[in-house]
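Possible regression after last week's pipeline update?

I re-ran a chain I had predicted before the update to compare outputs. Posting the input and the new output here so someone can diff against the archived version. Not blocking, just want to make sure nothing changed silently.
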Amino acid sequence: MTAQYKIDSTTYHFNHIVNPQHSSDFPNAISYYTRLKQKHLKGKNTYEAIQDLRMIAIAEFEMGNSYESEAATVEAFELIDTSFHADTLVDAKKGLYNQLGKIYRSTYRYEETIKAYTNALKFSSNRNDSLTLLNNTGNVYMDMGRYEKALEQFDLALIKRGLKENTMAYARVLNNKGVAQAKIGNSEEALANMQQALELRELENDMQGKYSSYKSLAHYYFDQGDTKQALEFANKGYEIANNINSLSFLEDALSLFVSMSPDPRVVQFEKITDSITKEKQLAENKNAFMKYNVEKERKNTLAAQLEKEKQKTWTISILALAIVGFLVSIVLYFTIRNKHKQEKIKQVHTTEKRISKKVHDEVANDVYRLMAKLQSKPAEKDEILDDLESIYSKSRDISKENSAIDVENFQEILSDLLLGYENENVSVIRRDSSPIDWSMVTAIKKTNLFRVLQELMTNMAKHSNATTVVLNFEQKGKGIAIKYADNGKGGILKTSNGLQNAESRIKAINGTITFESEPNKGFKATIII
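New output (post-update):
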């Protein structure tokens, strides 16, 4: 029951705005739609609130309250601006701009009126809306006395496809075109168009349209000096206004008689009254929409300044982060450099210890044994020479293991290294799964790889009793994979000095090395650099 009451009330007040019956209809409707607007805003129903404001604007306008009508229209625009669905409120924008056009026209702000109708035309998606707005714009140009411009608008409307199918719209444009033609002296065509418009309206029994035609013809004949014909059409207009039962139509019809009065004092009174009304209106034009645009521009300016400040803050933050990042990078660089330096020192110390141990275990012990042998008994010259040659060979091997590597001819020295461990008991087999571009490998990587392979081959020769060693080289993108395998006695993996050295060397060049070994199943290693 409540919902039905709401629908009935809305329809009731809507009809009284469109076709008022009593002087209280407009104030009652305004009060009703104001309450309804507040209810819709509270329920966050923006679209309905906008429609409420539009009805308030129409009612205020019909009452002659132009400023209040404009304020209600502006409030509706502000709701659209704050709506999340502003882009979808096309019909609302069209209606509001059309209402602004009516307000501005009634308050003699013609340039603003044309702008309002032009904006409304941008949001018009159907033919009827476009015809109405073109017709309205033409009427404004007639108000301004620019009849040629008015005819341009009416002609644009008349060439719209399907216009003649909409009899009422066609008649409206024809009648207005006739009025404009009469003003520039084209009387014959003017009268023909106005009469054709009246015929169409009579066929459709368009009461408001017939009133407009009678009024236009009354003015036409009055301007032509045919007072009798003018009064006939004025009387017909008055009858229509009574039948419509509208106060605004009755007021307009009666003013028509005043404008055609033979009494010059009445004519003078009307002119003075109109002039005073116009001057008063021009003085009172407060232009709420201009205030809306100024306020909107102010908000846009503040938003732009805020965005600029945010951008400035963001730029400063980015710059600060960049500086911090740069300083952290410097700290990291020197930390890593120092760490790398420490690792190199540690590696040098490890190498020195290894060489020292090797010299002690292999060379010094042999020298000591030879000295003991010479002291205990006389030795043959050949025997002494053999012992000395053995000591020399060991010294040369140690020197060779730790000498500088010719990285420019890496392929050759690598081949020499592997061949150096091949003998009648051990076969060393090398396979290249894909060609290796050693020129793309840095000198430090080549050096460390050489030493690791040398360490693996030395361990094989000394401890594994292997008869076959296989090395497979493969290029993988920018990386190189080397797989080592022998058929030696193998064993349980323990972290020996040799394996530790190999791991340290490969880790130093950001590579990886893994070992596999079991008793009697040989030894395997995989290197990736």
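Follow-up from reviewer: compared with the archived run. The chain has 19 helices and five strands. Marking as no regression found.
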